[in-house]
Amino acid sequence: MVQVVVGANWGDEGKGKITDVLAENSDVVVRFQGGANAGHTIINDYGKFALHLLPSGVFHQNIVNLIAPGVALDIDKLLKEYESIVGRGVPAPRLLISDRAQVMMPYHVDFDKYEEERLGKGSFGSTKSGIAPFYGDKYLKIGIQVCQIYDETMLRDRLTSVVQQKNTLLEYLYRKPLLDLEQLMETLKTQAESIRPFVIDSAAFLHQALKENKRILMEGQLGALRDPDHGIYPFVTSSSPLAGFSTVGGGVPATAIRDVLSVTKAYSSCVGAGPFVTELFGEEAEELRKRGGDAGEYGATTGRPRRVGWFDAVATRYGCTAHGATECVLTNLDVLAYLDEIPVCTAYEADGETITQFPSTPTLTRCKPVYTMLPGWRTDIRGVTDLKKLPENCRCYVDFLEEQVGVPIRMVSTGPKRDEILYRK
Ligand code: GDP
User: What span, in angstroms and rounded, lies between the C-alpha atoms of 6 and 14?
Assistant: First the structure.
């Protein structure tokens, strides 16, 4: 049985916490796309953690955590993260790495920086973790799979050609130091040894797990609007964060998916560039940013202040539809307790027309929000686990969002901690 946890919006919806909660009842947690560029914040009995590459099941000793083929595997960062959580008292997690995952190379990170520098004002606001150059190389078929770092002849052969291509760009386009083949070979040799105990044939592993009726949780990174095909292109990420892609990047049959949980915040937040219709500025933004999340809305990986805005039902409905969500999970509801009235964006307006379908990027950049005002509840609801204990206006707010999004909201998160959650139905 496969469950998928994905983001309905721009990322940072609180997927980490929800995965951590659901992991308790899972046997395997799988990361199926993305890399060390995003962060999941998890607060549990061991403390507060920002996970970037490790699957969110690492705090449960009964769970196998798998890095699947679709992930951009930064070996050094993964091991550092592994050591850092063990160093803080978490028992050594059960970690597996697919032999078909591809390796993030040091030059991918360099190229990410160089290209953002070259683009200057037109840059994408990349986290400079190497993601775009990594996936670019993957689809150019010049990436390096984990299985290939154990075959010296093949690796040398492939890297010789890569180095020639990259060095031409480094010399003539970026004017930066050139790559050295031998140094790269050496780095990869060390990295290969460091992950050897974790490497497996993940397809065989997952197919066997399915046969044994194991519960598999697929964990997405970022959100639907960052999908390269269906998102706000070009302000997207380079691998698909959609639930459907979990079958591809993860490696289970499409028919194996049972539940798709699409996570959204009770307001909006967004890191990085691109159109964001309900964005707030000035004092209003600062107030929401300060109160949002567990310690303000600042990126878990970059520390960058997140852009914030009101709940966008047009974007969330679109995100949930793109995922094929069977349910929507609402997080950060407690954050809105300070407001007398809460705007919810129920439509956009552009070129004199009212739009209720999330449009493609050129139209989106001209869209203005149309708000419905809902009464606030001005009561602290942090940690409430019983629906009946929510103030009526708060329950009405959730009902309204559910109606707007068109997908049942079953889980509502009322605080960043594992047990700060309530179930509606
Ligand atoms: P992810 O990448 O989707 O896992 O999201 P992040 O971890 O980057 O951002 C979500 C933020 O919201 C983090 O600071 C979480 O600790 C926090 N968070 C998650 N759920 C809740 C909640 O219900 N209430 C509050 N106040 N914070 C929450």
Answer: 10
- The CA distance from 301 to 298, in Å, is 9
> Could you report the per-residue pLDDT of 56-99, keeping only the tens digit for each?
899 999 999 999 999 999 999 999 999 999 999 999 999 999 99
Q: Probe ligand 1: pick from 42, 49, 264, 331, max atoms within 8 Å of CB? A: 331
Q: Which two tokens stand for residue 274?
A: 């691109």
Round to whole Å and give the CA distance between 109 and 76.
12
Non-local CB neighbours of 183 within 8 Å, separated by 6+ positions: none
d(CA 101, CA 108): 15
Sequence-distant (6+) residues with CB within 8 A of 90 are: 46, 58, 59
The pTM of the full predicted model, rounded to 2 decimals, is: 0.94
Query: Residue 313 is which amino acid?
Result: A
Domains of the chain from N-terminus onward: 2-87+204-423 (3.90.170.10), 102-197 (1.10.300.10)
Closest CA to 310 of 351, 269, 356: 269
**Cβ–ligand 1 contact at 335 (below 6 Å):** yes
In angstroms, rounded to a whole number, what is the distance separating the alpha carbons of residues 226 and 237? Answer: 5
Whole-angstrom distance, CA of residue 199 vs CA of residue 203? 12
In DSSP notation, 275-294 reads --TTB--HHHHHHHHHHSTT
